[in-house]
Amino acid sequence: MGIIIWIIFGALAGWIASVIMKTDAQQGALMNIVLGVVGALIGGLVMNFLGYGGVSGFNLYSLIVAVFGSVILIWIGKALL
């Protein structure tokens, strides 16, 4: 059941981040899932570095952290291309 939650959570976070960064038309559902899951890892690392908690489950705080990490990932991708 945990992997299904991560997929749903990643899809939601990746989609929100892609809408914020205006890249939604360029990527599909699978890219949103990957972006959201990797973004959750990046966001968790950044928040732990700043002294706050990372992704702790399926809640609003974790969603915000995952979206934050996904936005960072999209920004880095845009900067490199």
TrEMBL record:
Tell me the InterPro entries matching this sequence. Answer: Transgly_assoc
Entry's localization field: Cell membrane
Keyword rRNA-binding included in the entry's annotation: no
Q: What is its main location?
A: membrane
Q: Which domain of life is it from?
A: Bacteria
- GO cellular component labels: plasma membrane
Membrane-spanning segments = 6-23, 30-52, 58-76
Please state which protein family the record places this protein in: Belongs to the UPF0410 family.
What protein name applies here?
Transglycosylase
Which species does the entry assign this protein to? Candidatus Woesebacteria bacterium RIFOXYD1_FULL_43_18
Its taxonomic path starts at: Bacteria, Candidatus Woeseibacteriota
